[in-house]
Amino acid sequence: MISQFFILSSKGDPLIYKDFRGDSGGRDVAELFYRKLTGLPGDESPVVMVTARGGHHDGRHFIHIRHSGLYLVATTWANISPFSLLELLSRVATLLGDYCGSLCEATISRNVALVYELLDEVLDYGYVQTTATEMLRNFIQTEAVVSKPFSLFDLSSVGLFGAETQQSKVAPSSAASRPVLSSRSDQSQKNEVFLDVVERLSVLIASNGSLLKVDVQGEIRLKSFLPSGSEMRIGLTEEFCVGKSELRGYGPGIRVDEVSFHSSVQLDEFESHRILRLQPPQGELTVMRYQLSDDLPSPLPFRLFPSVQWDRGSGRLQVYLKLRCDLPPKSQALNVRLHLPLPRGVVSLSQELSSPEQKAELGEGALHWDLPRVQGGSQLSGLFQMDVPSLPGPPGHGTPTSASPLGLGPASLSFELPRHTCSGLQVRFLRLSCRPCGNTNPHKWVRHLSHSSAYVIRI
Amino acid sequence: MPYLGSEDVVKELKKALCNPHIQADRLRYRNVIQRVIRMSKLDQWGQAEVLHFLLRYQPRSEEELFDILNLLDSFLKSSSAGVVMGAAKLFLILAKKFPHVQTDVLVRVKGPLLAACSSESRELCFAALCHVRQILHSLPGHFSSQYKKFFCSYSEPHYIKLQKVEVLCELVNDENVQQVLEELRGYCTDVSADFAQAAIFAIGNIARTYTDQCVQILTELLELRQEHITTVVVQTFRDLVWLCPQCTEAVCRALPGCEEHIQDSEGKQALIWLLGVHGERIPNAPYVLEDFVENVKSETFPAVKMELLTALLRLFLSRPAECQDMLGRLLHYCIEEEKDMAVRDRGLFCYRLLLAGVDEAKRILCSPKSDPSLRLLEDQAERPVNSWAADFNTLVPVYGKARWAVISKCQGPERCGPELPNTASFATSGPLIPEEDKERGQDLPDSGALMLVPDCQLTAEYFEKTWLSLQVAHQQVLPWQGAVHPDTFQMALQVVNIQTIAMSRAGAQPWKAYLSAQDDTGCLFLTELLLEPKTSEMQVSVKQSEARTETLNSFMSVLETVIGTIGDLKS
After folding, report:
1. Where does the signal sequence lie (chain A) (predicted)?
2. Cα separation of B136 and B130, whole Å?
């Protein structure tokens, strides 16, 4: 059970404070937490911390998560399950996001009354009551204060929800960041469903180009603004296979290693037609999670061909990087950033880049190469020259060698691939089987997105 | 009692679960348990709560045990990590007599744990990594084929990287050692010095098993000539030479040149130790030490000076010609000019040792240069699953066992105090029936002829005197499993008005405790508890100041209940 729950801003200001059991002293606990957090030695984890008074641990545990710059902290005296508590905290974060529109310092401080009301319903005397949006909406009276009015500028940006699904119909990126219950006043608000297939890709490529590790973590996320009770059917690619041995359809198929579903998903049509049936509550929901490792059906999105010239005598280091994008020609990668750690003491950088929109700079002992947009099938290159005076080699090695100095690399890439899933999983259709009583057809937005979690290339 | 859902059935069950009458009736209780398990309408919090609650239930038969396991099986597939881990813990504890079932459960949990390890939530990832380490202590090969999942990415926070390095270090085996070492080697040049050092220490740990490859990597790292790397590598070498003497030759070849890149106390000590002990194999050892002797005046760390004295004396014994002069200078400085008493004493000690003659000094100083009998990575004792099953899915693995011990120790009696009497609350997970016994135990002093006085304060001296003067009135052996938690023990005894005179600390072998109590007639009961590590029994000897059998018997039964209760609480 939880003794207290509080939310701190990234600077440590308490935004929300709630004591559930009255067994622990006052508000200064939040301050204590922040002091401990900032004063923590580097090798200790901040996830769980214990309070100390006068050199004695008094056995109060702080457990927190960081979510969009905020600290959500729970304190407890009991030796409870860390998994459940962390899950609860992230669930609370999602709930707050659902009810307040989005979760950030501004929305929380604008909706303090709503947040307290919500916390009252979710937790009682430190025990979880319910976290289902459906149940909670019966009890919540306060309206969320929404900050941002709809703005045309949002149309151009590509957010997680609401993207360039079709050229003619573009959901504003703010559409998904509105509270689930704001429609109480004006019922004419659009019925919308956002379905996202999001994959995180972690890759490790050896210096000789061979693939050491590929790992895809996928999620199907749903954010629904439909009135509850409407049933929904999500059709996945029919060649979707689970496990190493299953075979479906002809051709390569789409294979994942493990799948887990949200408990509300009904799987009676999954075996035969790969259809997920569910009655989503309003708000955000992770319908399905899946993992895939070592065996990717499509080629990797990026290959890097580095060549390094290292002149030990003069301390001159020349790095030539060629980046090839192996996506299909119609797709593109956005916000590509290459991060290359350099040997200590690099002083100057001169660069020759293949196109003007790119940018390269030195920072924190590493080279950052930014490529805002990379078209599929294209090839980009950059030539970087640096001086490393603090790394003098032993005398007699005056000739340039291709051996890279220690401390260089590995390079890591971060990027986003809109409209692309690395596993190949696609949502075939999204059908709402019982038409909600509303006046208009609900809008359905389906998006596919991959982004890098760690894309590392050794040099 | 937490909220489990809104249905009436649930409410009814909730009441039933808390009702002591139903708890006392095994058959009814069992039925309730079965119905609880079958409840489908629980959300994940309710499920986690039920699983936690079921920890207190002990099935009567093997058949019932497997029934329950089968019924609960679906929880292991839940999409919520909390439920899966709760179920895993329950399975591990219920199946404590079936190691193969436990192994099966751990295999099934592997998937969810690995998913949590690569989860987007860093905090969840951290908790999962800590549990992975816990499992690896018992099943070293468990995650070996998934080693790639534990490679760090540069954007991860520091604490996760450190955990991952630890995990990598523990799951290394013949197949993946090459890849793991290559990965770790990449970390050694990380921008963060702390992380780089952690990676080097990890390589040092792996070197205990795969010496040659690791020593080569470490030697290459020396070529970087960076202070923070060199100092850690030299420290690793020192530990390694002590544990694996076969790598001495390679280490000695790598050492020359290091002294220029070491500035901190730890690194200097390690280097000087190596030069002293293995100086006969390092050609320039005397000259490196000479540099240290030259600069001894500006040396800030007394520990380095002490190490230097010992090392130079050792080297003098093996290479007298080169060292005699500077040893003289060093001794002169330490004895005449040094202000730190410890260093001065060490100097004087060395001087007197030399006065006793070279042979004598050799005999004393030239101790063994390595101790390979210390543990190797592979034959580290594998801890049985049962030793940590109760800690699974709690904060213990997240803090780490050692830190947890400190935390719970420092919490002290003032926190334990109020908790112990109401063990019927949800906090502890002991079985239910012994707790009822405990209540009986508390009632007993009132009902029987025995009435122990609450504030009997005996001094240790008085106790000792009385103890020696009396004969053993009663001796008995009680069953006992595992270690003793002195704090809990003491608190429990206080509840029944038995005073603790002295007690060994936790984990001592053999474990002893001396207790005293006084009844309302002034009769003293002095007790010795003796726990031998081998036998799972506690030997109880009681001495009584007035020989009265009936009070002795009731005293024994009080003591027996307390010991039985505590023993059951822990197991």
Report:
1. none
2. 10
pLDDT tens string A307-324: 888 877 777 888 899 999
Beta carbons of A260 and B179 less than 8 Å apart: no
d(C-alpha B85, C-alpha B101), whole Å: 16
Q: Is it true that A2-137 and A192-298+422-457 share their CATH fold? A: no
Report d(CA B398, CA B388) in Å as an integer. Answer: 13
Domain ranges (residues) in chain B: 1-140+382-412, 460-569
**B304 and B341 in contact (C-beta within 8 Å)?**
no
Q: Is the peptide bond before A172 cis (omega within 30 degrees of 0)?
A: no
Please, where are the H alpha helices in B426-548?
A: 432-447, 460-469, 486-495
C-beta of residue A340 within 8 angstroms of C-beta of residue A451: no
| Residues B11-23, mean pLDDT to the nearest whole number | 66
Spatial neighbors of A259 by CB under 8 A, at least 6 apart, are A242, A288, A289, A290
Question: B79 and A50 in contact by Cβ < 8 A?
Answer: no
Token pair of A397 as six digits: 């090695």
Contact (Cβ atoms closer than 8 angstroms) between residue B544 and residue B457: no
- Range list of H helices, B244-357: 248-254, 265-277, 285-294, 302-318, 320-332, 341-355
Q: Which residue has the higher pLDDT, A176 or B44?
A: B44
| pLDDT, tens only, B497-516 | 788 888 887 777 778 888 88
Q: Is pTM, for the whole model, over 0.90?
A: no
Instruction: Look at B48 and A453 and tell me if their CB atoms are within 8 Å.
Output: no
Per-residue pLDDT at B432:
39
The C-alpha atoms of residue B157 and residue A46 are separated, in whole angstroms, by 10
Q: Are the C-beta atoms of B502 and B493 separated by less than 8 Å?
A: no
Architecture, CATH, for domain A192-298+422-457: Sandwich (2.60)
The CA distance from A151 to the nearest CA of chain B, in Å, is 30
Q: Is B226 in the A-facing interface, judged by CB distances under 8 Å?
A: yes
Residue B150, SS3 per DSSP: helix
For residue B204, what pLDDT is reported? 92
Mutation test of the interface with chain B: which of A83, A200, A296, choosing the one with the most B Cβ atoms within 10 A?
A83
Question: Is the bond into A149 cis (omega within 30 degrees of 0)?
Answer: no
Contact B394 A212 (CB under 8 A): no
ipTM tops the 0.90 cut = no
Residues 6+ apart with CB under 8 A from A247: A241, A253
CA-to-CA distance for B373 and B363, rounded, in angstroms?
A: 22
The CATH fold assigned to A302-388+405-418 is: Immunoglobulin-like (2.60.40)
Architecture of domain B460-569: 2-Layer Sandwich (3.30)
